[in-house]
Amino acid sequence: MNAFFGRRYALSASHRLHCEALTTQQNREAYGKCNNPHGHGHNYIIEVLVGGPVARDTGMVVNLVDLDEAVRTHVLERFDHTNLNLDPLFAVKVPTTENLCREVFRLLEQAMPSGSELEYVRVEETENNFFQYFGEGPREAAR
Amino acid sequence: MNAFFGRRYALSASHRLHCEALTTQQNREAYGKCNNPHGHGHNYIIEVLVGGPVARDTGMVVNLVDLDEAVRTHVLERFDHTNLNLDPLFAVKVPTTENLCREVFRLLEQAMPSGSELEYVRVEETENNFFQYFGEGPREAAR
Amino acid sequence: MNAFFGRRYALSASHRLHCEALTTQQNREAYGKCNNPHGHGHNYIIEVLVGGPVARDTGMVVNLVDLDEAVRTHVLERFDHTNLNLDPLFAVKVPTTENLCREVFRLLEQAMPSGSELEYVRVEETENNFFQYFGEGPREAAR
Amino acid sequence: MNAFFGRRYALSASHRLHCEALTTQQNREAYGKCNNPHGHGHNYIIEVLVGGPVARDTGMVVNLVDLDEAVRTHVLERFDHTNLNLDPLFAVKVPTTENLCREVFRLLEQAMPSGSELEYVRVEETENNFFQYFGEGPREAAR
Amino acid sequence: MNAFFGRRYALSASHRLHCEALTTQQNREAYGKCNNPHGHGHNYIIEVLVGGPVARDTGMVVNLVDLDEAVRTHVLERFDHTNLNLDPLFAVKVPTTENLCREVFRLLEQAMPSGSELEYVRVEETENNFFQYFGEGPREAAR
Amino acid sequence: MNAFFGRRYALSASHRLHCEALTTQQNREAYGKCNNPHGHGHNYIIEVLVGGPVARDTGMVVNLVDLDEAVRTHVLERFDHTNLNLDPLFAVKVPTTENLCREVFRLLEQAMPSGSELEYVRVEETENNFFQYFGEGPREAAR
To answer: Which DSSP letter does residue E116 get?
Structure first.
């Protein structure tokens, strides 16, 4: 695939990074301040990259209204203005940017408007940190 | 005063906007999604503007090391990676951007390096929302 | 007034800068490329600064829902995704950033949620150009 | 190829998204507000990524003056401060970000300074929307 | 004055902060890493705010071409891609952001296109540091 | 590899682009203003992308503390607030963004926390220029 449409969404959420399987000391070493009790929060940016042919008539890869609807119902309504630790997806998994990003990918992968394909999800936790996930399937050799 | 040095600091925190004196319905009307139970979070930017004469020898309004130290000990260590609702300052007051900004102003006002004066504190909650506070004292007519 | 809440809104519009009272040559000198026939366009940012007392119960200067509603009905629905030259406000006046900014100020001034006051409107035409307008009334000496 | 030089250019233009082959209703569904009559506009960012070996003497992938000249003559002079719908390239094709991006790619592909190759063109229509195009040729497996 | 046009310019320069009147130890305390021998550099942003009446015909506070020309000849050609310490203005004065900002103000103050007035110059040294200078004259009470 | 963690670091440095093997005229043609004697400077952004499996317990690709330590000791302490031309790495090579980026890649490649791999280093010299380097090794077909 060689043509991609990207769109960025904002969501605000709180979380605490803490892994039950680790000791207090290990948690502190792994997560630093992000392990503070009672949590803290971020303005996350969710960047979604969608690939597919450009439709000959509309000149678009994906209908924006459909894409927004998919992201709104599957991601924003679920995570925006929430405490991520209380979501069932993070009952066991720690809500790191990595895990949040992969869950968002899985939630969206099946919901893509027909004819388009989810290339990656990128989650920016702050201006200086991000995680980018391309899914598990075999990727084509071409880029 | 006509010369100002500004510096921006980042902090991540969670909060929930909920006022005990208001009904459930009033809380929802006042705060919208920010009233969601369990809270959410933000990457806050704290912008501090400091006025004062430019020292003839160093060419500076304020020593950066001193300013950073004042902000670190009075603001960042207190609020960064915390749940704002659990801070004693917000035991009664709701941790809105407005109240956070005014508390940061009060905490910093007395801590300014000598010879300089706190002109304003500006708190950006997201890229699109901010609150700016110039303190309570009488302001000079000259801007 | 010493406490201000600010909020930023985006709108996309096209315009052409051309003044009937000027010659072709004068138009070119005044507006450069912005005088090109058929127009061009911008992603404008409208920054609104609102002053007022912080309400003791809600901890807010202005209810965000009310402010958004005022801006939406008076400004965004009118100008977003339009050709500014076709708006009656710009039948005679040229839709420069200056004139757009002043018209937005006038449209919003009367629509402010009660208890708050419009301090300024700032219109950013590009990342490098903006115009800021504080209204015509006498301003208080205090900043 | 494993080394890329990127450069970003700004251009302001207006457009209207409307496809003659579609009904009024279909146009509205495909383009939403972007189908408004009389058009609207954007500050576009054109990001160009160029690959090639780093020259041993100059330490550069591409001479910046040459690259700027290619982009200026082939893209900026053609599209900056214009109405995209009036360009012959968009006499039939709708000037969506997708189509603009692919046309920019084609215009630049042949104009690359010798020794360098156009990897992609990315067009950002707003801060939240972009389209990225890698060309039609077979891509190497590497990367 | 209540209406202002702002414009931002970029310049890249190097400097070293070192005051001959101070000891090695005092220089280190005042400037930290900025006192490192051999200098370092920044991408400076120069923001210029210009006040004045909006011309009834053109709808502009200041002709952009004239303003750009004033900034180009008086500021950019002098400081862009230079070592600030070698400028005669900084033969004695240390090229801090404060001093650079005040010199830019003085250079531009006399060069303003007629009918407009320089309100402030703001120099951003990094994304997190800036200095803003309003000149020495008495300011009107009305902001 | 299909999962990547990215992190951005800032450093300020000065440099002059000048190649001994070229004539005065050729240097001017290759580097323009960047060839000015006495140098100039930039706020560089170093973006580091690290790939690897997401650890099942911590939910992280790489421990942030370890990554920061690697970048601090190998890159920031070496280049931040320095004159790049004086670094032994640039005794012969010209400190272009391209060469700086490749040297940073080489310095970091061996220093990656175990289990993770350096995917690319991207150096942004200004908001509009960047260079991105993926290393010399054979790349997997995937992605």
So the answer is: -
DSSP for F22-84?
S-HHHHHHHHGGGG-TT-EEEEEEEEEEEE-PPPTTT--SS-HHHHHHHHIIIIIHHHTTEEG
The pLDDT of residue E143 is 37
Q: pLDDT tens, position by position, for chain E (143 residues)?
A: 789 999 999 999 999 999 999 999 999 999 999 999 999 999 999 999 999 999 999 999 999 999 999 999 999 999 999 999 999 999 999 999 999 999 999 999 999 998 899 999 999 999 999 999 999 865 543 33
Measured CA to CA, the distance from residue E124 to residue C48 in angstroms comes to 23
A–F interface: beta-carbon pairs under 8 A: 70
Q: b/e per residue, F30-45, with b = 16+ CB within 10 A?
A: bbeebbbeebbbbbbb
The alpha-carbon gap from E31 to the nearest alpha carbon of chain F, in Å, equals: 11
What does the mean pLDDT of chain D come to?
A: 93
Q: Label residue A76 exposed, middle or buried (CB < 10 Å: 0-12, 13-18, 19+).
A: middle
Rounded to an integer, what distance in angstroms lies between the CA atom of residue B84 and that of residue B92? Answer: 12
Closest listed residue to residue E112, CA positions, set E77, E46, E67 = E67
Contact in structure between E8 and E43 (CB atoms under 8 Å): no
pLDDT 10s digits, A128-139: 999 999 998 655
Which residue, E44, E99, E130, is CA-closest to B60? Answer: E99
Q: How far apart are CA D24 and CA D37, in angstroms?
A: 11
Please check whether residue C107 is in contact with residue C74, taking contact to mean a CB–CB distance below 8 angstroms: yes
Mutate to test the interface with E, among C2, C26, C130 (most CBs of E within 10 A): C130
Confidence tier at A143 by pLDDT (50, 70, 90): very low
Provide mean pLDDT across the span F106-113. 96
Mean of the per-residue pLDDT values of chain B: 93
- The CA–CA distances, whole Å, from F88 to F79, F83, F102, F106 equal 11, 11, 15, 14
Instruction: Decide if B38 and A82 are in contact by the 8 Å CB cutoff.
Output: yes
B98 chain-C contacts, CB cut-off 8 A:
3, 5, 54, 59-61
Q: Quick check: helix, strand or coil at residue B11?
A: strand
d(CA F2, CA A130): 14
SS3 state at C112 = coil
| pLDDT, tens digit, 9 for 90 and up, residues D94-130 | 999 999 999 999 999 999 998 899 999 999 999 999 9
For residue E128, the one-letter residue type is: N
Q: Is D125 a catalytic residue?
A: yes
The interface pTM score, or ipTM, of the predicted complex is: 0.91
Chains E and D touch (3+ CB pairs under 8 A): no
Grouping H, G, I as helix, E, B as strand and the rest as coil, residue A75 is helix
Q: Per-residue pLDDT for B142 more than 60?
A: no
Contacts of B131 in chain C (CB under 8 A): 3-6, 61
d(CA F9, CA E117): 39
- Interface residues on A facing F, Cβ-Cβ cutoff 8 A: 17, 19, 21-22, 29-32, 93-99, 102, 127-136, 138-139, 141, 143
Q: Residue C81 — pLDDT band, cuts 50, 70, 90?
A: very high
Are B30 and C63 an interchain contact pair (Cβ–Cβ within 8 Å)? yes
Helical H segments across chain C, by residue range: 24-31, 64-71, 77-79, 97-109
Closest CA to E6 of C30, C98, A103: C98
Strands (E), chain E: 3-15, 40-51, 82-83, 117-126, 129-133
d(CA D93, CA D109) in angstroms, rounded, equals 20
Cβ–Cβ below 8 Å for B143 and E138:
no
Q: Quick one: F88 exposed, middle or buried, by C-beta within 10 A (0-12, 13-18, 19+)? A: exposed
Least confident of A2-16, C126-140, F35-49, F91-105: C126-140
